Amino acid sequence: MKALLALLKDYWGVLRRPSVHYSLGFLTLVGFISGIIFWGGFNTALEVTNTEEFCTSCHEMRDNVFVELKDTIHYSNRSGVRATCPDCHVPHKWTDKIARKMQASKEVWGKIFGTINTREKFLAHRRELAEHEWKRLKANDSLECRNCHNFDYMDFTKQGKRATQMHSTALASGEATCIDCHKGIAHKLPDMSGVPGW
Amino acid sequence: MSYRLLPLMLLAVFGLAVASDLNYPLDAPAPDSRRAGGTISESLPAPELSVTENKDLKRERNYPEQPPTIPHSIRGYHLDKNSNKCLSCHSRANSERSQAPMISITHYMDRDGQPLAAVSPRRYFCNQCHVTQKNAPTLVENNFETIDQLLEKQAAEAAKKP
């Protein structure tokens, strides 16, 4: 313990003292360059985890939720604009994204310990997992939906009668958000007993 | 003759039949199915896809017991043992919020006519009876006449007689 304290004290001394061998300019430049490398590396790694290839590289995602997505309008449609996993499940803004990524570290734990590594286990957990996503989207006012579906530019005259009625009242007043009605639009639903409105 | 030679004999006969070019009628008319026309060996282009009607306007029922047709698109609606998207608007409890027609009271009864608290399991799968409609040519000809048409016809005939 004493030795460790002494060692730490030594290092503290080194850090405190001005540099003897290297110039301030050199240190600043090295700091700047390594900053770019570290930050760039971090961001690149982060972006890699934000791709569909990364998500579907695990069989849990590829064989369950990704298969279900393929049947929906968010995967295949007339105009060919499509949503990938992170479009709906990861916020676009940096701070929100980092917060979400930190939460998602729990998924690494789940992967390592095989929480949903079989179809049966996945189905048993489906309600819980779905509720996490509903809660998240409810809390952020369906932020990920709104990244593409902007309320301000919705043309009610182009919508169906029922859609117009709901969007112009409940959604417009902020009383309801997208996820309140549009559950199960990209994946199959769990047992919905007890879910309000279902 | 040994039976072991029989398969060989059959093969030989078949080979001869093929070699002598019996000209099988591959251009025979195809079965008169939903896609009429063409021959057996011919593949016809698929008919054009039609769009589901989405007008939200009630259609007339041809007879009182007819399950009403669905006047809107139901693409992507989940209807399985986990959830029923139809009921999220058409159930008793949800029809006020959605202003959609409530499903018939008979759907809340068991087969003995006893009222139930929730939709009867035998009525749960809506699209067993209720279907969307498409603006497409009919696949099978249908000359169904409603009771009104029959009565009108009868009245017209009765008026003609004397």
TrEMBL record, chain A:
Signal sequence annotation: none
Chain residues that bind heme 1: C55, C58, M61, E107
Topology in the lipid bilayer: Single-pass membrane protein
Keywords (A to Z) from UniProt: Cell membrane, Electron transport, Heme, Iron, Membrane, Metal-binding, Transmembrane, Transmembrane helix, Transport
Cofactor comment: Binds 4 heme groups per subunit.
Chain positions recorded as heme 4 binding sites: C178, C181, H182
GO biological process, one term: anaerobic respiration
Gene Ontology molecular function terms on file: electron transfer activity; heme binding; metal ion binding
GO CC, alphabetical: plasma membrane
Cellular compartments annotated: Cell membrane
Residues of the NapC/NirT cytochrome c N-terminal domain: 18-192
Similarity remark: Belongs to the NapC/NirT/NrfH family.
Entry protein name: Cytochrome c-type protein
Source organism (scientific name): Pseudomonas marincola
